[in-house]
Amino acid sequence: MYLGADPESDPCNRSKPFLRFVTPGDVRDLKNRIDPYVLALDASVRDCKALPADTAKAWGDFSKAWRAFYAEEDSWLHTAAQMDQAESYECDVRRWQTLLAQQKCAPDAPPLSFTNEGGSGAGSFGGTIKVVAIAAAVVAAALAIREVAK
User: Fold this and answer.
1) Does the predicted model carry a pTM greater than 0.90?
2) What are the DSSP calls for 28-50, one per residue?
3) How many CB atoms lie within 10 A of CB 150?
4) Which region, left, alpha or beta, applies to residue 72 given φ > 0 means left and ψ of -120 to 50 means alpha?
């Protein structure tokens, strides 16, 4: 989504855990954390006269796609996919901030920082609770299957 992205040096180019538990609330929290930066970049692009027209159009397309994604209802049916997409937008917003700073548009804007180096915002304690909850659910399911099989 970003012009000139270098996948080798990209801090967002990292593997995700095979199994993770996210809730619609986690997705909404991440969307709400990213949105003010998108709004600020909208203003920066609108006010930057030195920005090439094709870059401004690319940002407009990105911003429009973000607005549609942000407005989507958060659902349990596709929470993991929404979280992946939100984390992708988080990375893209950081790249756009870098690009616009290079173009001398909003060079002093605070950069979007990742939470927990993964974008999910859970923190180490919240992440531990989720792992324990998943493990407990797996053990409970195994015990229930064993009881039914007897």
Assistant:
1) no
2) HHHHHHHHHHHHHHHHHHHH-TT
3) 4
4) beta
Query: In the chain, what are the domain boundaries?
Result: 24-120
Give per-residue pLDDT as tens, 34-65.
Answer: 999 999 999 999 998 889 999 999 999 999 99
Contact, 105 vs 44, CB < 8 A? yes
Whole-number Å distance between alpha carbons of 100 and 142: 52
Q: Are 51 and 90 in contact (CB under 8 A)?
A: no
d(C-alpha 6, C-alpha 27), whole Å:
26
Provide the angle, in degrees to the nearest 10, between the axes of the packed helices 53-71 and 79-102: 150
Handedness of CA 41, 46, 50, 55 (dihedral sign): positive
d(CA 5, CA 3): 6
Distance CA 109, CA 99 (A): 12
Structure tokens that stand for 68 in this block: 């549609």
Q: With beta carbons less than 8 A apart as the criterion, state whether 122 and 26 touch.
A: yes
